[in-house]
TrEMBL record:
Domain Response regulatory: residue ranges: 4-120
Record InterPro entries: Bact_response_regulator, CheY-like_superfamily, Sig_transdc_resp-reg_receiver
Keywords: Phosphoprotein
Domain of life of the native organism: Bacteria
Residue numbers bearing the 4-aspartylphosphate modification: D53
Pfam families linked: Response_reg
Protein's name in the database: Two-component system chemotaxis response regulator CheY
Bilayer-crossing regions: none
GO terms for biological process, alphabetical: phosphorelay signal transduction system
Amino acid sequence: MAKTIMIVDDSASLRQVVAIALRGAGYDVLEACDGADALRKLTGAKIHLIVSDVNMPNLDGIGFVKAVKQLAAYRFTPIVMLTTESAANKKAEGQAAGAKAWVVKPFSPPQLLAVVQKLVLP
């Protein structure tokens, strides 16, 4: 059975690029347009990994990571931040919230897949 990865990004085109790369590698993909939308979609079904942007409307990536870590079903779900933010203080804030990896845009699909394959839950 394919592993499910959630993509959280306010850019539809970026979600599409990431989804194509992940589906091409055999993953199932669930998409959300911001942190609030993603939280509504975390209904208890198994998610093996989350890829989230940092800068989004309604609920940003850092707030989203903190919220996910409060949910018993998703407390141990690895979260990869995929963002234009490269400042050390933002990375530190993300890690403190519970993010496992930080990938800076622009990225290459093989680069993202390498991170995903390292972190995806069994």
